[in-house]
Amino acid sequence: MTTRREWLRSLGGTVAGVAGLQLLARSASAASAPVHITVYKDPSCGCCTQWVAHLARSSMSTTVHDRADMDSLKDSMGVPAPLRSCHTAVVGRYIIEGHVPAADIRSLLATAPRNIVGLAVPGMPAGSPGMEMGARKDRYDVMAFTAKGSATVFRTHA
What stretches of 86-139 adopt beta strand conformation (E)? Predict the structure, then answer.
């Protein structure tokens, strides 16, 4: 039986093997790349603070801006009204609206869909990050939305 180490060593001398090893190295690097998110929230919102803590526990760094004019910010960023929640964030070229789990943000960044401008969790469902309520966990959808405002389910959480 060939070990993983022997298999990798056997690939090293071929052109395809070198390309494959470089691809593996890039994939590992992308998965561990630091993620920085800029968060905009109302200064009096406790659940927003809890969502920021969720991001930190998921090894994401944040810059937080307290704002009283969240609706005008959401308008300027093009967040569709039916998808709005309490806080809005920006990571890379994407908008993150509401209580989106960190794992879904990482998935978005890893796949980097071109037609999507953001992810949103409309409202404030119990059990979503920042909205923990003991054993209560509502089923909720993370929605992917486009610049024209159309939305599709990105992931469902139960």
Answer: 88-91, 94-98, 118-121
CA angle 140, 144, 148 (to 5 degrees): 130
CA angle 32, 102, 148 (to 5 degrees): 110
pLDDT tens for 59-110 read 999 999 999 999 999 999 999 999 999 999 999 999 999 999 999 999 999 9
Residues 6+ apart with CB under 8 A from 26: none
Q: Which of 125, 116, 124, 123 is nearest to 151 (CA)?
A: 116
Average pLDDT over all residues of the chain? 86
% helix / strand / coil in the chain, to the nearest 5?
Answer: 35, 25, 35
